[in-house]
């Protein structure tokens, strides 16, 4: 599907619009009061999500941030630390929510390749014995967005989880785009998430549903998360209207993610050819292209916008482009043409 209104929107895969099948499902959804546990469509979505990820239970919530916060809240206790990557979404992009919501401090560790090694966990545990705050949990982000959506392979997820579990530390997975990671690594979310204690994924990113994320885990963890969701004001009523779109997303939108990955790699090739050093195309395996702003023309984001192409910054030094179902090959041609125009202008 081409971008709307003549604008190629590569800011995020959250900008997608519902498919016709989603709109029909929403209009026809059987609903009830989810706060009472009586919405059959929400229940069906939660059962489907748990089955796909191989967990005992799941909880439908409004956003990825809420899902992450609930996961960390039920795994930790106030006055402790959670080990995370220094560019992790929970650390950079959730408004210090972990500190405010759970009374927990995040301890970021270097993630030059978008991941960290099991040895990092062992060192952190040793530090906690020398006057550091006690560790309560570990969290990983798969795929790792600031590393151009680079996925963690299943064996590396297992190695990090094993290292954490040796020290009785639970592991939460920020799997906002776990379906992209699974497609890129030719595996399944079930395999990627098997060693994790809790894991969330977003329906409103690559899968193109309008609203919502799902937290998955054991029955005990999800039961506690349901209580915490209510405590934070996140319980809702006839949510089946939007959960219906999430079901369609899970059932129909996963396989097509490969198309987004191909287009992201094509865009990375175009950037690298016109602005050498801005991005390494070989590292682009999902739908995100993060480029070094220092190797790009000045004010590139604003100049592309004038050409009808939208992208964004994730920090002061990184320009991000995200492909999705509302960007087709014609749109990508237009983006590449805009890059050509800017490349010929003054830097």
Describe this structure in words.
This protein is α/β, with parallel strands linked by helices and 347 residues long. Helix content is 43%, strand content 16%. It is built from 14 helices and twelve strands. It has helices at residues 20-28, 40-53, 64-75, 89-92, 97-102, 118-128, 154-166, 178-185, 189-193, 219-231, 240-252, 257-274, 300-306, 329-344; strands at residues 8-9, 57-61, 81-85, 105-109, 135-141, 171-174, 198-202, 213-217, 288-292, 309-310, 312-315, 318-322. The strands form three sheets. A seven-stranded mixed β-sheet has the order 2-8-7-6-5-3-4, with helices on both faces. A three-stranded antiparallel β-sheet has the order 9-12-11, covered by helices on one side. The chain has a two-stranded parallel ribbon with strand order 1-10. Helix 2 (40-53) runs parallel beside helix 11 (240-252), helix 6 packs parallel to helix 7 and helix 12 (257-274) packs parallel to helix 14 (329-344). It is globular, with a radius of gyration of 20 Å. The relative contact order is 0.18. The model has no long low-confidence stretch (mean pLDDT 96).
Topology, pairings included?
Blueprint: E1 8-9, H1 20-28, H2 40-53, E2 57-61, H3 64-75, E3 81-85, H4 89-92, H5 97-102, E4 105-109, H6 118-128, E5 135-141, H7 154-166, E6 171-174, H8 178-185, H9 189-193, E7 198-202, E8 213-217, H10 219-231, H11 240-252, H12 257-274, E9 288-292, H13 300-306, E10 309-310, E11 312-315, E12 318-322, H14 329-344
Parallel strand pairs: 1-10, 3-4, 3-5, 5-6, 6-7
Antiparallel strand pairs: 2-8, 7-8, 9-12, 11-12
Helix pairs in contact: 1-11, 2-11, 3-10, 6-7, 12-14
């Amino acid at each position: 599907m081409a971008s709307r209104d003549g604008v190629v929107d590569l800011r995020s895969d959250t900008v997608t619009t519902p498919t016709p099948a989603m709109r029909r499902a929403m209009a026809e959804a059987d609903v009830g009061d989810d706060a009472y546990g009586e919405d059959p469509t929400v229940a069906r979505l939660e059962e489907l999500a748990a089955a796909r990820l191989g967990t005992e239970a799941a909880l439908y919530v409004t956003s990825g941030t809420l899902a992450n916060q609930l996961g960390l809240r039920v795994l930790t206790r106030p006055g402790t630390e959670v080990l995370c990557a220094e560019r992790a979404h929970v650390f950079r992009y959730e408004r210090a929510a972990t500190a405010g919501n759970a009374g927990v401090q995040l301890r970021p560790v270097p993630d030059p390749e978008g991941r960290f090694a099991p040895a990092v966990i062992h060192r952190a545990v040793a530090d906690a014995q020398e006057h550091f705050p006690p560790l309560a949990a570990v969290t990983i982000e798969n795929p790792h967005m600031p590393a151009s959506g680079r996925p963690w392979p299943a064996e590396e997820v297992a190695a990090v989880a094993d290292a954490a579990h040796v020290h009785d530390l639970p592991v939460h997975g920020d799997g906002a785009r776990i379906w992209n990671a699974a497609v890129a690594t030719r595996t399944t979310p079930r395999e990627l998430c098997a060693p994790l204690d809790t894991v969330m994924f977003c329906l409103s990113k690559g899968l193109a549903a309008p609203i919502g994320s799902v937290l998955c885990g054991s029955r005990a963890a999800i039961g506690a998360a349901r209580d915490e969701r209510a405590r934070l004001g996140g319980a809702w009523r006839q949510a089946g209207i939007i959960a219906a779109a999430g079901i369609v997303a899970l059932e129909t939108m996963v396989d097509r993610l490969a198309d987004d990955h191909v287009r992201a790699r094509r865009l990375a090739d175009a950037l690298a050819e016109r602005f050498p050093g801005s991005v390494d195309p070989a590292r682009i395996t999902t739908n995100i292209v993060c480029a070094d702003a220092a190797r790009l023309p000045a004010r590139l984001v604003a100049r592309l916008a004038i050409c009808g192409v939208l992208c964004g910054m994730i920090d002061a030094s990184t320009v991000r482009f995200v492909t999705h179902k509302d960007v087709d090959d014609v749109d990508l041609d237009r983006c590449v043409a805009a890059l050509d125009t800017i490349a010929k202008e003054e830097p």
